[in-house]
Amino acid sequence: MRHPYEKYIRLEFITIVLVVILALFAIIQSYLLFIFLGLYLLAISYILTALIEFHTYRTQVAMKHALRAALLFVLATYLIFTM
After folding, report:
1. Is 68 left (phi over 0), alpha (psi -120 to 50) or beta?
2. Tens of pLDDT along 25-82?
3. Nearest 5°: phi and psi at 3?
4. How far apart are the first and last CA of the chain?
5. What is the pLDDT of residue 30?
6. Distance CA 64, CA 28 (A)
7. Is the CB of residue 54 less than 8 Å from the CB of residue 62?
8. What distance in Å separates the CA atoms of residue 62 and residue 55, rounded to the nearest whole number?
């Protein structure tokens, strides 16, 4: 029997792996675009974590993750438009 939130867990893992790959590529190639994509993927990972926590009735932890995701999204967007 599969875990009810296995899709969310898989997507979270995939986004984290993509963030690591993008971060390594951005460091090696010095591309700012990949750094910003990595920040957005990290925000998506936090959102997926918040969804998992919310569905398991841990709303306080879910709200913390959602707030972190929102702040990271706003920060990345601000950095893109100021550069």
Report:
1. alpha
2. 998 988 888 899 999 999 999 999 999 999 999 999 999 999 999 999 999 999 999 9
3. -70, 140
4. 49
5. 83
6. 32
7. yes
8. 9
